[in-house]
Write a structure and sequence with these properties.
binds adenosine-5'-triphosphate, alpha+beta, 6-stranded mixed sheet, 283 residues, 4-stranded antiparallel sheet
Length: 283
């Protein structure tokens, strides 16, 4: 085999709490990660030496800052294999949106090289390598539904919460994750999110209860600067979402629906305000 094509799925956070800042500067998280079927496609082709990256989306960097480049470098470093690679990214997941598109691409390259180079590394090995690339990469390798702690690397796989209808609305404002962390006033958060309750609703497959109880502590920072985020959340509820929050550090807002007609009506309404509205399913 000298070529392989992989799907790189995005994620949403079904709830996200930031507990405290650690001595190493990272923030300790408590969150539920959920893969969705909104995806990029990654094709890997054998190359004698070096790396060539192509992408249909011109804002994606094609240099060593791309997570696919980092994934290739880490695989070479960990295995001692020195082979080239040609990576073609077909980008559908909006960039810098809180949907982990870059991390999903990096994870796909680790999985693809494992196959292409006959490495036989376990998923656990790949997750360990992935963590050196980015905090969301281990989850993108695991997939499905997971409870994540630490910086996102302490993962517990949960019962699948698949086939739930999700409407995603991306307002297209670039928001840096670092900015959100810096401006998060952890002392002002009195009510911690009850993540165990969210886990319980997932185990019960109780979409309504889960949707009603979802929360993301990062919203306050982003909404202060961009009230449109709050407007979209309210629109989602007005047009029938069971619950709506921002994903990750934003700016994507998602709503969970149990009625397809309502979801498409909401999509039509939101498209009057913003252009990037996507329909997806949990996987
Ligand atoms: P997360 O939810 O993990 O914070 P995100 O969805 O907010 O991720 P990404 O789409 O991963 O953000 O992109 C963040 C930045 O990473 C971009 O601004 C881009 O410059 C850089 N980047 C590096 N590699 C990629 C890639 N393969 N796809 C998209 N962006 C990438």
């Amino acid at each position: 085999m000298d070529e392989i094509t992989l799907e790189a799925f995005g994620k949403i956070n079904l709830s996200l709490d930031v507990l405290h800042k650690r001595a190493d500067g990272y923030h300790e998280l408590n969150t539920i990660m959920q893969q969705i079927d909104l995806k990029d496609t990654i094709t890997l082709k054998e190359l004698e030496e070096g790396i060539k990256i192509e992408c249909n989306e011109k804002e994606v960097p094609l240099d060593s800052t791309n997570l696919v480049y980092k994934a290739w470098e880490k695989m070479k470093e960990k295995t001692g294999i020195n082979r080239g690679i040609h990576i073609i990214i077909d980008k559908k997941i909006p960039i810098a949106s809180g949907l982990a598109g870059g991390s999903a691409n990096g994870a796909a390259v680790l999985k693809g090289l494992n196959i292409l180079w006959n490495l036989n590394l376990s998923d656990e090995d790949l997750r360990d390598i992935g963590l050196e690339i980015g905090a969301d990469v281990p989850f993108c390798i695991m997939g499905g539904t997971a409870h994540a702690k630490g910086i996102g690397e302490k993962l517990t796989k949960l019962k699948p919460f698949s086939n739930k209808m999700v409407l995603l609305a991306n307002v297209g404002i670039p928001i840096s994750t670092a900015y959100v962390y810096e401006n998060l006033n952890l002392r002002a958060i009195n009510n911690r999110i009850d993540i165990d309750k969210i886990v319980h609703y997932i185990e019960e497959d109780n979409l309504t209860k889960l949707a009603e109880n979802m929360a993301n502590v990062m919203e306050s920072v982003v909404i202060k600067e961009h009230s449109i985020i709050d407007e979209i959340k309210k629109d989602m509820i007005k047009y029938g979402a069971l619950g709506s929050i921002m994903s990750g550090s934003g700016p994507t807002v998602f709503g969970l629906f149990d009625d397809e007609d309502k979801l498409y009506r909401c999509k039509n309404e939101l498209e009057k305000k913003i252009c990037k509205v996507f329909v997806a399913k949990t996987i």
